[in-house]
Automatic annotation (TrEMBL):
PROSITE patterns noted in UniProt: ACYL_COA_DH_1 (PS00072), ACYL_COA_DH_2 (PS00073)
Protein name per the record: Acyl-CoA dehydrogenase
Species of provenance: Shimazuella alba
UniProt cross-references to Pfam families, sorted A to Z: Acyl-CoA_dh_1, Acyl-CoA_dh_M, Acyl-CoA_dh_N
Annotated Acyl-CoA dehydrogenase/oxidase C-terminal domain residues: 230-378
Gene3D superfamilies to which the protein is assigned, alphabetical: Acyl-CoA dehydrogenase/oxidase, N-terminal domain, Butyryl-CoA Dehydrogenase, subunit A, domain 2, Butyryl-CoA Dehydrogenase, subunit A, domain 3
Catalytic activity: a 2,3-saturated acyl-CoA + A = a 2,3-dehydroacyl-CoA + AH2
Record's keyword terms, sorted: FAD, Flavoprotein, Oxidoreductase
Length: 380
């Protein structure tokens, strides 16, 4: 096995590290306080052809692989998790369903503007009464003579305020047996009946856009069905597998950022006449943090590699997301502990990482759901 990054992956890592340090990091704390969306950062990423990083060049993408996408998400999240999740959701939840299940006409019409940064990507799955139980979707779509009429609502949807269209799931009925099924649709956000609100007062990820979407008899053309009628449930399971790699990478980035702050502080903080980094209890904390981050990163890359090889990666996606998210929580907790009382103060940044990390244990399927998936995949 070769664990060395390719030349292209190393170039992307270098680019994203420099971009994150120079463009993303300086305003991260202020955005956390104000909730301001990182418009300028997204525009600059579009100019660097990053918004379609791992999609074919024929659709305006960068032609890179999933490992490169994971590297990009990690580097952004290392300095600003709000920017990291904005980008991750755009790629894995916004672009991916259209690329994977869209017709060639849909790809040209919708994927190209996503890859070029003309629109942000969003995916409407979660509902007030359908979170972990996504099969319990209550949003409905009724087929009429010349259109579909959609009625319902979605919640906790990333990027929708800045999306010109989004993919979403709705309950439909089979014409053959009238049984309930789930179908995916592409819905423009600027048409009659679509209302988007962003009023959540969140624990963390303050400058990411998290929305509620209301659909009141929204009429869309019949050719806006994404994939096959009735296959929406299977399609979003595939979509979420890819999304979990993004969340895993985000968690690694958060953990890495918190670890670096803790290591720097430990070297500078003097107690009992010497740097606290010389105290074995602190050394062991930092050693454990470094170890777990390395393990989490390696498994994120493994899941990404399997995806790139067109191999089954459902179990690995859940493992990397579950492990990395719990590593992020542990690392951020210890980073605060190493900082002592200062870790509780906003100016020292680690409390932001701690707050941001929690979402990685919830988004794209909770830790409990990941354990269910892993148990199923190992034959339990």
């Amino acid at each position: 096995m070769n664990f060395e990054l390719t030349k292209e992956q190393s170039m992307i890592q270098k680019l994203m590290r420099e971009f994150s340090e120079e463009e993303v990091k300086p305003g991260a704390d202020q955005r956390d306080q104000t909730g301001e969306f990182p418009h300028d950062i997204i525009r600059k990423m579009a100019k660097l052809s990053l918004m379609g990083l791992n999609f074919p060049e024929s659709y305006g993408g960068g032609g890179a692989d999933t490992i490169s996408f994971a590297i990009a998400v990690e580097e952004l999240s290392r300095v600003c998790a709000s920017t990291g999740i904005t980008y991750s959701a755009h790629i894995s939840l916004g672009c991916a369903p259209i690329y994977l299940f869209g017709t060639e006409e849909q790809r040209k019409r919708y994927l190209i503007p996503l890859c070029t940064g003309d629109s942000l990507g969003a995916f409407g799955l979660t509902e007030p009464n359908a979170g972990s139980d996504a099969a319990g979707t209550q949003t409905t779509a009724v087929e009429n003579e010349d259109n579909w009429s959609i009625q319902g609502s979605k919640c906790f949807i990333t990027n929708a305020s800045h999306a010109k269209f989004l993919s979403l799931t709705a309950s439909t009925h089979s014409k053959t047996n009238n049984q309930r099924q789930i179908t995916a649709f592409i819905v423009p956000t600027g048409i009659a009946g679509v209302s988007i609100q962003s009023n959540y007062n969140k624990l963390g990820l303050k400058s990411s856009n998290t929305t509620e979407i209301y659909l009141e008899q929204v009429k869309i053309p019949k050719d806006n069905v994404l994939g096959e009628i009735g296959n929406g449930f299977k399609q979003f399971l595939v979509t979420l597998d890819g999304g979990r790699i993004g969340i895993g990478a985000m968690a690694v980035g958060i953990a890495q950022g918190a670890y670096e702050l803790a290591l720097q502080y430990a070297k500078e903080r003097v107690q009992f006449g010497k740097s606290i980094s010389k105290l074995q209890v602190i050394q062991h904390k930092l050693a454990d943090m470094a170890m777990e981050i390395e393990l989490a990163r390696t498994y994120v890359y493994k899941a990404a590699w399997l995806k790139d090889q067109d191999k089954k990666f459902t179990k690995e996606a859940s493992i990397c997301k579950l492990f990395a998210s719990e590593v992020a929580r542990r690392v951020c907790n210890q980073a605060i502990q190493i900082h002592g009382g200062w870790g509780y103060i906003h100016d020292y940044k680690v409390e932001r990482y701690f707050r941001d990390a929690k979402l990685t244990e919830i988004g794209e399927g909770t830790s409990e759901i990941q354990r269910n998936i892993i148990a199923r995949e190992i034959g339990c």
